[in-house]
Give the backbone structure.
Amino acid sequence: MKVHRDDIGKLILRLTCGILLFHGIFKVFTDIQHVKNLVIAAGLPAVVAYGSIIGEFIAPIFLIIGYKARLAALVMVFNMIMTIVVAHRAVAFKLNDFGGWMIETNMLFLLTALAVFFFGAGRYSVSGGKGPWQ
């Protein structure tokens, strides 16, 4: 069996980005109200908060298993842009007490999702990397 290093890299990238799932699990089972409060404070309707469920729960599952991975990654990119604009706009250009960028976690997820969008799911996925959204 031939090892496909590029595809292993794509799998690792998908799994790394898919860690966002833990934020989604928290929101689904514990605290969507916090997100609703942030969305309302930003002047948006409360229903917009449920978009975070799609971007942080459903899309990461699709990304991890490699089903419609490019589409899931694009949803996650949009979700991360929204988190920065809605929840972190006041600190977007600030550093924390340890010299870290205040939105570095958001940017990590945004950029890894963007990389998955451009690279695709790879061979080690449900789709086998075949199809336009894989």
